[in-house]
DNA sequence: TTAAAATGTGAGGATATCCTCACTTTTTCT
DNA sequence: AGAAAAAGTGAGGATATCCTCACATTTTAA
């Protein structure tokens, strides 16, 4: 989990030695764990530092603000997700709508399972105006748009954009279902959402 | 994180005179406004009391906790929504999937516009474990299940339940789109989501 | 009228969080 | 070795929130 992107919530002091980079990585990991357990608001800088085995001052050396910490994490997630989407797009030529839908749902679900803090941050972004800069959504939309371009050749640019928004919302719904605890019939519901996505994709590529 | 009594959401002292009821109504309204402007976490009890023109002590007289306040608001919203869903179900016999989808999206969208705090609370419930008791989702699911029963007679009970979950998620997605600020092509995206819902509903009622 | 019940008040205690800063320790480089 | 740069430390200041409590005011009913 490297700090791939530059300074949008710039580190007060960027790490320049190896130890610094390791510390930053440990801090980000601890932050992710705390965000998952307590949510963005509930997580405390003191708690994050403690979990990383660092002093509070160390944390503030690299991240001047809780918000900067969250933004750094989100940027890393956005990078990873965009790459995965591109890889999927490259392989998706000729797939049926059903298969494409299944792969898309699977991709986001697996990512969420691997990085639970991603969901926590996405939820927090809805409430916290400070996190509105996340731009994860925009990057995902663009990735999806490029993916869809190959599957619905007849669509105008505006329609393609709208379709990307729709597909993203459907994927998000599937991910939300995955996070709902103790919902009876979750598997069936997930299959239903996947079906809805497949139907929509098929409708998209059908010659009007 | 101070919490005096673990009285789950009950008013410390229920209003018994007319003035008490008016005050409670004013406090709830002020709370809704604050939740919209600052979010559940950002809203403060002091701010809510001030906005209602009441002293902080008055607020705590009726709502022992911020959580109790939110739960009371949410209960009112759940009641209203359930009623509206039932009214829609009563009129929906014979509707095409397209029309049903349009009406469902319209219903939730209008509710969200009329009661913006509903969305704020729904978002907060995802993060705040204290609000997990909301149960709004469960009641909506049940309402939808009954509505769908008339439109897909062949379905088993478990399938009906799953379908209700799917439809609720699709409606939520549509509502989320409505709240996204400054998204270009929002109308087109909304139409796309409605189309996905219609396709899913049609697929549901098609004889397998 | 008058006492009891309901409602209203706001200063302040308890607690919690964010973040600073003066300082120490470790690493790098000449 | 020695100096400079980077990384590390944690007590505490500033601030903010939740909620209590002892008491004042208004309404109801006998």
Automatic annotation (TrEMBL), chains A, B:
Residues 44-63 bind DNA. This is TetR family transcriptional regulator. Pfam families: TetR_C_15 (PF17918), TetR_N (PF00440). The keyword Transcription applies. Residues 21-81 form the HTH tetR-type domain. PANTHER family: HTH-TYPE TRANSCRIPTIONAL REGULATOR BETI (PTHR30055:SF234), HTH-TYPE TRANSCRIPTIONAL REGULATOR RUTR (PTHR30055). The keyword Ribosomal protein does not apply. Keywords: DNA-binding, Transcription, Transcription regulation. One of its GO terms (molecular function) is DNA-binding transcription factor activity.
């Amino acid at each position: 989990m490297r700090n791939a992107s530059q300074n949008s919530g710039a580190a007060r002091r960027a790490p320049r030695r190896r130890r610094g980079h390791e510390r930053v990585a440990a801090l980000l990991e601890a932050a992710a764990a705390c965000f998952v357990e307590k949510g963005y608001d509930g997580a405390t800088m003191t708690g994050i530092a403690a979990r990383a085995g660092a002093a509070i001052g160390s944390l503030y050396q690299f991240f001047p603000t809780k918000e900067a910490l969250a933004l750094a994490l989100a940027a890393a997630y956005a990078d990873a997700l965009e790459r995965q989407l591109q890889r999927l797009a490259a392989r998706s030529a000729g797939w049926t709508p059903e298969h494409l839908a299944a792969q898309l749902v699977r991709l986001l679900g697996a990512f969420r399972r691997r990085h639970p803090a991603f969901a926590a941050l996405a939820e927090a972004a809805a409430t916290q105006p400070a996190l509105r800069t996340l731009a994860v959504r925009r990057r995902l939309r663009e990735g999806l748009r490029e993916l869809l371009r190959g599957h619905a050749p007849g669509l105008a640019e505006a329609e393609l954009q709208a379709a990307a928004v729709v597909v993203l919302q459907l994927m998000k719904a599937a991910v939300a279902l995955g996070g709902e605890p103790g919902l009876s019939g979750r598997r069936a519901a997930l299959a239903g959402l996947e079906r809805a996505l497949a139907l929509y994709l098929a409708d998209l590529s059908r010659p009007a």
